[in-house]
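User: Sequence in, structure out. Go.
Assistant: Echoing your sequence, followed by the structure tokens.
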Amino acid sequence: MNTALHFLRRIARRGAWALAGSVALLGFGAAAQAAAIDWHAAVVGDAGAAVDAPSSCPGCCSGHGGVSANCAANGRVYCADGSVSPSCLCSTCNATPTCSGGQFWNGVACVCPSGQTLVSGTCRPIQTCSGGQVWNGTSCSCPAGQAIVQGICRAPGTICSGGQIWNGVACACPTGQTLVNGYCQLPAQTCSGGQVWNGSACACPIGQVLVNGQCSAPTSTFAIGPGISGNWFDPAQSGHGLQIDVIKSPPATATIFWFTFDNAGNPAWLLGVGNYSGNRLQARAARTLNGRFPPNFVASQVNRLDWGTLTLTFDDCTHARLEWASVDPNFTATGSMRLEQATQIAGTGCP
């Protein structure tokens, strides 16, 4: 009887185990339908590790607690236990990382907005520098060992003096100039036909004209008379001009008023009185300063400064050539210009 009882007890225990196994398998199957399964864990008997919590990325982070909402820098999703999935992408698992420094997630990585770049962990506008300068995070500057010279970064050995410029290999004078005593200068000019160099071109001396390549005094049958009285100007330089008046007494005398500007752009009136002979009029001119508009004009305060010489050579009653030689440093020392008569005094005429 004892033997029979023992046999029955063994059968009962095996039945309980079978029943428990069936229940476990049913539960495991239900879990398998709701979540990803780590089959290795299931085979070795770790049912808790085999089944993760429900996930939006089936098969990702199995045995690691499922996926989290965070994303690693390499674009892979973080698992719930802090490990990084070797294959599951953040974009697949709808995980969005938190970007810093003004960056945003573009689906693959944290990046700066268009037109910006990451500088010391912060997105900053991309700076465009010129002359070889580079952006140092704060401003444009030359690379180490260079300095800015006329807007271009240059090494100390490329900084030129005396009007020279760096040609990429060495300092050199501009084309057409040579180095004389450390300064770039135009070569000495050789003029022909009696012309002289005036600083910019060969020209005949004052009072002469170039005829067939030779400077000579102009020959003209025109004689100055009252008909030249009036206003004269250069049509190519409208805005300044002369007023010429042939006066009755003393004879062969004329006045010249030149309404012009000095080299600094200040208005200037030049007044001259001279004599004429044939077709040539020459006058010594002065410049007046310190005058005031009435009623504040005081004659004793006006200064009259010697300015230089004005010479007019007339081709006819309406065309002439003006030449000047100034001693005032505020004006170009010498020069010439062609003139045309703009107005003529009523009642006068040319022969």
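User: And one key feature?
Assistant: Residues 4-55 have pLDDT under 50 and may be disordered.
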